[in-house]
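Morning - GN1 inputs below, output right after.
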Amino acid sequence: MSIFGKYRQLYLPNILFMTHLIEIVSQFAICGKVLDISPLGNGLINDTYKVKTDGGQDYVLQRINNAIFKDVDLLQRNLELVTSHIRAKLSGEKDLDRKVLRFMPLKDGKKTYYQSADGKFWRLSVFIKDAFTFEAVNPEYAYYAGEAFGRFEAMLADIPEDLGETIPDFHNMELRARQLEEAEAADAAGRMADPRVKELLARIHPWKEEMCKAEALHREGKLPKRVCHCDTKVNNILFDGDGSILCVIDLDTVMPSYVFSDFGDFLRTGAATAPEDEPDLDKMGFNMEIFKSFAKGYLKEATFLTPIEKENLPYAVQLFPYMQAVRFLADYINGDTYYKIKYPEHNLVRTAAQMKLFDSVNAALPEIKKFIEEN
Ligand code: GN1
Ligand code: MG
């Protein structure tokens, strides 16, 4: 195959872009020659590509969105510390490169990222082949996911180095609420007059104080911060062909946070009955069976939880659809400056879907609480 693979018939700008990507990959210490580069995954923040080579090893190339991850050096340091800590914990196991991500160094040095002449930042990691991601899970896979995130947090509980916050106060609900208020006041895109925006805001505001409980508990010294994944969407878990879990991916947001982050954010996507941007709200609800399986797996592995942390897991299930609604709506009001969108009202549709999920979680709260108490 030619170096441009399936891009051969595309226009010159695409070919130039491919040449640019190949040039970037060639900065890293890789095995073999590049055969093809193609888009991978559907993250809302970074751009991701699969790099095929003839060297027996393929790679994942990512452009790091440094408008969002402002300190790329700190980001990559976190990733290197986290992956090497996990690798040490798993030493002796077979297939280590399938169980923890490996970031490639540059040819001329130790850094695991490259800044291209246009100022953009790039990194390259080993592609884990014959692995699968899912946008939805069944109860069995939800149980494995619970174990995987519980184990992930347990493995990182004794990381000796201090990890930086790659996005400061990332899951701080007080900050997110403030950002929404600032967006409302600035009304940068003139969207505040929209009755749909007003209706969503009227549903969001009354819950603010209750949803900021974690920050209050932390201030009172009752709630610790621990190293968490902080982006536990279903599609951030790599499964092996037999359904077992290989590893957790998308480590950009691994940082000190409350345990609520990983528990709540997985259920936001994993136990939702529809995608996070489902326009038909009748389809959106909370699947108790998935919740129970995930919680069982998580509680089995997360033996480090304090009573306050455990007691507040039901709050975590409420918090994440709520926080995500606040973030999506703030971005809509700001004129879509943060999340990638596929159509003009995408962030508004996402907000409405998250609020419907939030209502469904609230309706299920007594059952959620009972299950956590009994397990
Ligand atoms: C973003 O990068 P991605 O698509 O995995 C976001 C998460 C949100 C998620 C919503 C750094 O994750 O916090 O929950 O979109 N990541 C960042 O789908 O903001
Ligand atoms: Mg992510």
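Note: The pocket of magnesium ion (ligand 2) is lined by residues 43, 45, 231, 250, 252 (CB under 6 Å).

O.
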